[in-house]
Amino acid sequence: DIFTLLFYVNILLFEDNLDIVSNLTTLLSNNNYLVEYATTIKEALKKLNKTYSLVILDISLPDGLGTDLFLEIKKNHQVYVVSPLIEDSEETNLMTVKELQEKINAAFNNKIPIGILHGKMKNTEKEKIMNDFKDNKIKILISTTIIEIGVDVSNATLMVIFNAERFGLATLHQLRGRIGRNNLESKCLLI
Questions:
Q1: How distant, in Å, are the alpha carbons of 7, 8, 32, 52 from that of 3?
Q2: In terms of pLDDT, which residue wins out, 101 or 48?
Q3: Phi, psi at residue 25, to the nearest 5°?
Q4: Does residue 124 contact residue 62 with C-beta atoms inside 8 Å?
Q5: In 3D, which of 168, 126, 163, 128 has the Cα closest to residue 147?
């Protein structure tokens, strides 16, 4: 009836795991939600031309990061993701550069160009990664604090810092300074 139709909510679900899609679609469809889904970035971009009340983007990403990453990439902006560690440490349960690379690649089905940067890399590797990021060939740069000083990429509008409690205020301030180097709205998320 017309009363029920007024209260339907349109949702776009972006998730490549079809079991999750099926379960969420069933759950939401039974509660006055109209659900569409996309399993690839290309599909999601096409469908975002419609108006949705809610967009759920790859719920497998840590801390809801998928929405922010996806929206910045859709605007052709670039993103820094910072981690305190390169590889797993048995002593801590912190996010690492390599773990974030795996999760973000999986979330975006390896469709978004991602680079990693850390101090254990050779100088030539670091220079190539930074030049590719500056040239917008890399959309998401996952790094340690090596980017803290001397990096200027004006197209970068989002910085996500994992385990931010591990960094001092001066370091956080320097990292945040890597974005907002243009007239575009920028934000820094501390996780």
A1: 7, 10, 11, 19
A2: 101
A3: -60, -45
A4: no
A5: 126
Two structure tokens written together for 28: 């939401």
Percent of the chain clearing pLDDT 90 (strictly above): 26
The number of residues making up the chain comes to: 191
CA distances from residue 99 to 64, 76, 87, 134 in whole angstroms, order as listed:
16, 24, 8, 24
pTM: 0.68
Tell me: pLDDT of 186 over 70: yes
Q: What pLDDT sits at residue 7?
A: 45
d(CA 71, CA 82): 18
The structure tokens 């994992």 sit at 162
Summarize the chain as % helix, strand, coil (round to 5): 40, 20, 40
Angle between helix axes 97-107 and 65-74 (nearest 10 degrees) is: 70
Pairing of strands 78-82, 9-14: unpaired
Question: Contact 144/119 with Cβ under 8 angstroms?
Answer: yes
- Residue 160: count other Cβ atoms within 10 Å of its Cβ: 24
